[in-house]
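[SOLVED] Need 3D model of a two-part complex

Original post:
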Amino acid sequence: MTRRTLWLNRGAALAAVGLTLVALTSALAAGRDLRAVTTAGDRPGGAPITADKAAPWTPGRPLLRRNGATAEIAIGEHLNGRLAELGLTVLAVDASNLRPLGGGLHLAEVRVQALGDAAASAAVANWIAVNREAVRLKSLTLGLGPTREGTVALVLLMVIA
Amino acid sequence: MPLDDLSLDLKPASAPRPELEVMTRVLRLPTRSLRQARAITRLQLDRLSPLPVADTVFELAPLGHEAGETVYALGVLRRSALADPAFGAQRIVAVAKTVGGQDVVFRFRNAGAVDDREARWLRHAPRAAMVCLGLAAVALAGQLRAEQWRERRLPEIAAEQRLAARAARLVAQQAAARADWAALGRTDAATRYLCAATRIAAVRPDGVAVTGAAADGQRVSLTLAPGTDAASLVAALELPPAAGAQTLAVTFPSEVCG
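Solution:
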């Protein structure tokens, strides 16, 4: 083996070592990419979607239909009219909590502040009892305001479409 | 005869290898380990070899076992004999001998030989470099492909997970809404409030004056106006007596209006 061949072979050996390192680095990087994708795919995106295990649900009829309006506006307009007929003066309606019930129906938790007496409260309770397929009363609080007029706070659950 | 006849040897004729004078004898040593046997022999080399120890190269070859001892063939060689140029490239010099009726091959280590291991190994370097080049090309292509795949898949996976999380959130909200609705299915605050009003009307047709009322899914509590005889009302309604000092309060528990 001549000296030139010896040095050429040494260069080839060095190149082989370098190329081996390149191959190993690339293989490791490819492995990291595969692992990143696998890990991202295995990460849970949320609670598993299971069949409804709650009590049997029969869709009722909605108390009102939004018809394109926002739930808060539709509920506010409906309750203003209905509760006024029953003797309550509505001060505020908060219907920000809207949850899906399925079948195109939603359950709105509505907080109503109104002025009225015990008789108006009883009329409202009666109206709710008659329409209990579409509205239920979670709580009712009757009291006296600072000017001695009756104040009523209602928390209603309403089915709307 | 054609010039490219395969029998034509164009390499320069190698120098004839000189005959090596190997002195042999049989040793019985209490060990089967060749390494230990060499160590023992090295310690007693001045007695076993007729040559000066500094000018002696020896090698052992096992012949067999007899009565718990191992029989070795000891070959002794003059070190200067290996300095011949004919052995210059041989790191191991093999010499065949017959000892005790058995043919043995002594493999003497030639410490003065040229170390050509590097040259021998380097003969494979160009082929190894080509193989490594191929491997590196494949690995680089794989890395490129994996990187492109990761960049494409990660946003897709994130979008799928967002959708799944949204669907799971909707399902959870729906279950909670249905549970809340069903919890008021039998009795809600309205039915309890009406029940309490009906019971009061039954015992006090003229009604009672109240300053406050609270109804929920469990009970109805009325705060009577001052001057109202709460105790007689509670007794008339057959309600359990109110706890504490709230004498103006009337509570309809879930057992009464359920």
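Edit: Chain B touches chain A through 67 residues (CB under 8 Å).
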